[in-house]
Design goal:
alpha/beta; 7-stranded mixed beta sheet; 10 helices; globular
Length: about 280
């Protein structure tokens, strides 16, 4: 039974909460294993709450948060309470600057996870963004009462992770796809193909995701089809993506995006859901 207390604890670029009504009907809820190689904030994963799953992301900070939630929820909550008490603009920039210091490498996993959650809850627009050196660089948000601790959700999420067969991986998405067999279901939510020069700034790792990598992802989708593994992918609605996936089913959906460096390009835009259903 789905636990209604579980929801994403991080706001992530391209989050899918608003598109769940379109996405969920396309997911095989009776699959043997659910795989999400670009889990991000996990809106789809936490809505589905499968009993057996593999989740992965390239972002080490993000995956560390999920691992700490699973293994050390009480310690994480205690750390977050400290951040909540100290929260102000000066403290925010002090915490933000930690990944620019040599001491950062020696910080505990729990302290790093608390830092990411705190910055995510208090930075402008909840935008997790890093510079070319991989350092967090979003500005302070000046919110009156940000939900920094969120203890109920953390405890519920930890219980879910530990009561089910959930593998949490960090690395290349292709590693999460190895050994998949028919009966599994894959949901792919990669960094989107930029639809303008101003939209590409929202990458949540310093490496970005080029057109060549989109082509590589298409090859991985073809491999899934050859194995008879059903999948669903979200991406931007642009000619490059439509051409790449012209042999697949494509559904156009509308999403409201408030994150863009160009204010004129915020608002409702088209995105696509690309899918293959195994016989």
């Amino acid at each position: 039974m789905k636990n209604l207390l579980i929801s994403p604890i991080l706001k992530w670029v391209g989050g899918k909460r608003q598109l769940l009504s379109e996405i969920m009907p396309l997911i095989n809820k009776n699959c043997s294993t659910y795989i999400e190689p670009f889990v991000g904030g996990g809106a789809v994963f936490f809505e589905l709450q499968p009993k057996k799953a593999i989740i992965n992301d390239y972002n080490e900070e993000l995956i560390n948060v999920y691992r700490v939630v699973k293994d050390s929820p009480e310690e994480l909550i205690s750390e977050l309470k400290v951040y909540e008490e100290k929260n102000n603009e000066d403290f925010f920039y002090e915490v933000r600057s930690l990944d620019r210091t040599p001491e950062y490498a020696d910080m505990s996993a729990t302290k790093k996870a608390a830092r990411v959650i705190y910055l995510n809850k208090t930075c402008y627009n909840g935008l997790y963004r890093v510079n070319a050196a991989g350092q967090f660089n979003s500005p302070y948000g000046r919110y009156k009462k940000p939900n920094i601790v969120n203890a109920t959700t953390i405890k519920a999420m930890s219980k879910y992770f530990n009561s089910n067969n959930i593998v949490i991986k960090q690395g290349d998405y292709r590693d999460a796809l190895k050994g998949i067999r028919k009966g599994a279901f894959v949901y792919l939510d990669p960094p989107y193909m930029p639809i303008s020069t101003s939209s590409s700034f929202t990458g949540y790792t310093e490496n970005g995701f080029s057109y060549e990598q989109q082509v590589e992802l298409k090859k991985e989708c073809d491999k899934l089809k050859e194995k008879g593994v059903s999948f669903l992918q979200s991406n931007s609605d642009c000619i490059e993506i439509r051409n790449l996936y012209k042999d697949y089913e494509i559904l156009t959906v509308k999403a409201k995006r408030s994150i863009n460096s160009n204010a004129l390009k915020r608002g409702e835009i088209n995105e696509v859901l690309i899918y293959y259903v195994s016989e």
